[in-house]
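agent: user wants the structure for MHD1 domain-containing protein from Oryza brachyantha. delegating to structure tool.
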Amino acid sequence: MPSFTANVQSAWQSFVAYDACFRICLNAWARNCMEAPEFLRDECIVLRSAFGIQKFLLHPKHNSQDDGKGVYDKDGSCNMKGRKLVKQIEIEVKKIRVVPQRPRLRATSSFRNLYMQAGSEYVRQISKILKSQVTMLTSTSSTSLPEEMFTCTLELQSSCKVNQRDSISPQYLKPGTGESQLFYLENQGDAILVEVQDNNRVVIGRTKIQVSSVTDTHMLQGGPAVDTIVYDMVLEAAMRAQNFNSKMLVVSGSWRWLLDEFSDYYGVSDAYRKLRYLSYILNIATPTKDCLELTYELLLPVMKARDDRTLTRQERSILLDCEDRIKSLLAVVFENYKSLDENSPTGLSDLFGPILDCAAPALAPAVQIFSVMHDILSNEAQNILRNYLQTAVAKRCRRHMIETDEFMSSNNDSLLTDPMAISAAYLKMKTICINISREIQADIKIHNQNILPSSIDLPNIAASLYSTELCKRLKGFLSASPPSRPLEHVAELLIATADFERDLDSWQVRPVHGGVVSRELFHGYIMVWIEDTRLQLLDNCRADKLSCPAVSTTSTFVEQMYEQIKESINEYGVVINRWPHYLMNLESAIADVEREIMKALEKQYVETLLPLRDGIPKILEKQVQRLTRRQSISPYVVPNQLGTFMNTVKRMLDVLHCRVEDSLKSWAAYLTITNGNAVFGEQMNSITVMLRKKYKKYLQAIVEKLVSNAQANRTTRLKRILEETRESEGESEIRERMQALRAHLSESIYNLHEVFSSRIFVAICRGFWDKLGQIVLRFLESRKENRIWYRGSDYALGILDDVFASEMQKLLGNSLQEKDLDPPQSIVDARSILC
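agent: tool returned. relaying tokens verbatim.
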């Protein structure tokens, strides 16, 4: 509260205010007003203490001079410092006198020139000139015209703003009517602009009168009292008495009554009362609901009075000052609309506090004040409010970004080499995405409370800045710490980024240029990941990394490779689930790896597969046969390694590749686009075809070797046995002739069972069975017209059926399927000839 200094100026002001209040209380007491006695009690101790005049008064001898001193406000929140002290001046126009403008006299130098030019005419010419000038001067007289022909216009000009006049219309006064106009002066440098017009509004003349030339000493030095200054003294006293502060802004009770009585008794305008009270509030204003509601309550009628052009110049001056401070207060509110705290001394909470999802209580009155001070329908006002909100969003955004500033510097080499630090960094970036998403969601909830003007789209204003800043931060972070593969922490950041983009779309937030587009952020990295995966898996298929073939059911190398493929596919699950079109690239990479696996497998078993391949030229083969014709040819023995190879190929075809294909197909339902002319599934189908061809090729090669073994020996050569059979021979003779072949077939079938899995074993046996049936079929076809060979062929077919069916059933038992015992097609065709 203000404290008065012990000088003549303060004492004079205080005594005038004290006297004014004392008379008011006496008047009210005479009217039996209940509030007056409180101020008159104990020799007006309340008033004397409030105005600080105790030290200037005589005191009874039993009282201390310090008794009754008021409690002063040490922060000076309602002191007179900074308040413009205004003096009033009353002007009346009594008479107007119009004096024509005198023409200027010529300089004497002109006469000298005349004298030089016409010396002989000097006397005559100068006499004429002097005569004409004297005549003009003597003929000029004061012209008095009727007063009602003129109007005097008065306007006040401030010395602080030389080029700015009073915004209220000039005051028009008729001379001699007794009308007057009251002006409020701020300092001695002010001036009164006077302009005289006739009835046709033609300007007759104008002048400027300096106030200092017509005013006497100021009231503060003991001159006449000004009601507004005294009112200010009473208001300050009331604030001191009621401990006026930022949490206690309302003057109430008996002091409120005294202020009302004062303004009514001495004619202080309601607009001035509200403006002066408002000016004191703004000295200690905080962005809280109570403060802003009181500000709105005081400001609204004043703004209406300004629009009605009923404010005095003094009131407009105070209003201009208040408007500037109110704009500053509104800027604090709107630029911290998520950090307002009613319980904080400053009205603001810690910027790092929790995210509020509802509007602060102070926001609604702030919008009301803004709407009073601005035309909210104008683009200018809307842009001002948007700029406030954008500043608030920028503050909040900066608050989140500051946590990752350390990762954006160029000196983060330690981050790139420390897995734990990298994981923590990605976790922080994920948290930023989640927090900013929550910020926008909170803005949507605030917007849905319909507090802000309908023209202000808070979610889009906030999201545009949040999204662009987040996109910049993500780009910089990924560039500084590029993800090498879709590890867990990378996947979490990718999910958070994609979810942020999805949330904006679900909230119907307009997309903004330069905002977060998760696919664009990660596209380059995803393509690199897929290529690196392909190259890494291909590198694992290199021959120098393959181990020697071990005796096992299937190749451990293939099992390990497909396990790596499975892990790689699972890593890309987070990518494919959000952007299925990357499935095409992944399918192509996996197909390349599967082809390479097959090549590596063949290289690993190259020695085992060499006898099965048709790599020996036919000429060389004939030469070898010629050289070995008379030597015994060792039969082909199926090695165990061949069983491992064939079992592996079969497992790749039936199990491993199918698992890969099923994994990729599970995402294909979400794939809505194609990559050029490529369609998903083509690469997988090509792998299936390749594996099926490889399997069939090597299966046929094995069968051919088994048939060659049977044909190599005369006693087991089926065609020779059929050719040597006679029509007279019975079934027993033919069985005896085929006994060696039968034993050879049984042994071969047993060996196959020891090497191959059951399904491959059945396939080879049936292929072997079919090949032998083809020999019988060709034999019959070449002798269709000679039926003498039919009986032996019929017996041979029966023996073949019996051998293969009995041996397979004996070795496989119940696991043998019924269709596996059906004769192959060649046997069926041969029997059809025999029928």
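agent: one observation worth passing along. The chain has a mean pLDDT of 82.
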